[in-house]
Design goal:
Radius of gyration: 16 Å
Strand content: 5-15%
Largest sheet: 3 strands, antiparallel
Distance between the termini: 36 Å
Number of strands: 3
Order of helices and strands: HEHEEH
Helix content: 25-40%
Strand order of the largest sheet: 1-3-2
Oligomer: single chain
Shape: elongated
Length: 105
C-alpha cells in the first residue's frame, strides 16, 4: 500500500505569490491572439480544503473566513480554507480578460 505524502497545493489567489503568475499567464494567452484557454482544476483542485499554517501571516491568507470542520456536537474541530472560495476572486478577475462571453460547463 502506498505511503501518503503531503505535497504542496498550488492555487492562485489575490493574496499569494502564485496568483499574479496565473493572472499574467491568462493575459498573455489572449494578448498572443488565442481565443481561449484551458484552465484545469477551475474552481477546485483534487483537494477541496487546505489546513491553515501555524504562521499567522500565512494563516490569514489561507482561511476563507467561512470554512470549518465541526464535531458532531457542533464544536469546531479544524479551521480550514475552501480552495474554491480562496481562488474565486482571482478566477473572476481572470474571466474579465476573456474577449468574448463564454459558458462554463
Amino acid at each position: 500500500m502506498p505511503i501518503p505524502e503531503e505535497l504542496p497545493l498550488f492555487y492562485g489567489t489575490l493574496r499569494n505569490s502564485y496568483g499574479p503568475i496565473l493572472e499574467a499567464y491568462v493575459q498573455k494567452i489572449f494578448a498572443l491572439g488565442f481565443s481561449g484557454v484551458y484552465h484545469d482544476e477551475y474552481g477546485e483542485s483534487n483537494t477541496a480544503y487546505t489546513y491553515l499554517s501555524d504562521d499567522p501571516v500565512k494563516r490569514a491568507a489561507m482561511w476563507d473566513n467561512h470554512s470549518v470542520f465541526m464535531h458532531a456536537n457542533g464544536t469546531i474541530r479544524a479551521v480550514v480554507g475552501s480552495v474554491a472560495l480562496l481562488t474565486l476572486p482571482l478566477e473572476l478577475r481572470c474571466e474579465n480578460t476573456f474577449v468574448e462571453p463564454f459558458i462554463c460547463i
